[in-house]
């Protein structure tokens, strides 16, 4: 239904890993499931184990030269998962001081969790929640 560029690469000037995050909106999670095979045939891969742990989205990744280049998040359009990702991106785009604080946090966490992507992602979550709650 709609595609949005999200994540740090979607915020001008924000330091980011060289991975493009794409948000694709569908009508239902059943539709997301039905698209999985077609998405994988188009060059993406996925983790069935990781997707089984997700209730609000399906996740795919694209690779080039042995490195991830894209993450594709397929979610129900205008669901909470959709709105949170778009709202967070928009908050960072519209408030340079907030984007700067987020960049500093990411830099600290990247050093602290250099070998643990999941811990890095989890450590950013409190900041994301506070922005979405309007506390920042």
TrEMBL record:
InterPro entries with a match to the protein in the record: GrpB/CoaE, NT_sf
Transmembrane regions: none
Cross-referenced Gene3D superfamilies: Beta Polymerase, domain 2 (3.30.460.10)
Superkingdom as given in the UniProt entry: Bacteria
Pfam short name (any one): GrpB
Protein name stated in the entry: GrpB family protein
Taxonomic source organism: Ramlibacter tataouinensis (strain ATCC BAA-407 / DSM 14655 / LMG 21543 / TTB310)
